[in-house]
Amino acid sequence: MTEDLLELGITELGLNLSENNIADLELFLQEMSRWNRVHNLTAIENEQDSVRLHLIDSIAVLPVMRRFLQTSHPKIADLGSGGGLPAIPIAIIQLDWQLSLIEAIRKKTAFLQHVRGKLKLKNIDVLSERVENIALQQSGQFDAVISRAFTNLSRFLELSLPLLKPNGLVFAMKSKRADEEMSAVCKDNWQLLADEALFIPNLPVERRLLVLSPVRKFPPIVSSST
Ligand SMILES: C[S@@+](CC[C@H](N)C(=O)[O-])C[C@H]1O[C@@H](n2cnc3c(N)ncnc32)[C@H](O)[C@@H]1O
């Protein structure tokens, strides 16, 4: 049943997924439904809603991410990954990207570790920690960070900055126009590179992806003339 739904949405997204990709996405959804019944990982119970809202939502960002990420094997952090969204669907499709899933709640990271083993996903790391601690341990190591339903934009940017490499990117998934949240962001510190409307097949929902980069202020170079 889910296969029909997936193919319906995915064909329209134009992502050209392999049979392995689809099988792994379905396995992930099955595992999420199973764990959800026991641990209440996500708020959505109905399987059809789950497919459309969680999975298609998570992979709809891919065309924009592919366009902006310049390196062939980018290292990306998903902040507040919860049950693995958007990182696990992204990792299933983009085997050449390395994703670090940062999540503070242990029962959620136990699920993420379980999925990593079950799907043999070698391109994800599950970090059972607060983002603030990872920022100290892995400062400046990520080409990009992403989050879905994590926190407000200003806080997300604040938490992202120490994790990013100098040319790093922030991908902020939003459900509606984020003008109000953007107005709270200091334009001296952050540049908005794009605010893209995402296409979600067969669903009357608004989804947007903001792409931002930090405006780094390096100390001036002092010449050492004698
Ligand atoms: C609303 S859930 C969203 C989960 C997932 N991204 C999704 O879209 O379904 C937010 C998650 O962020 C986690 N979280 C909140 N603050 C955090 C922090 N400072 N460090 C790590 N995880 C955090 C919570 O435990 C929760 O699982």
Automatic annotation (TrEMBL):
It is an enzyme of class 2 (transferase). This is Ribosomal RNA small subunit methyltransferase G. It holds the Pfam family GidB. It comes from the Bacteria. Belongs to the methyltransferase superfamily. RNA methyltransferase RsmG family. HAMAP family: 16SrRNA_methyltr_G. Its EC number is 2.1.1.170.
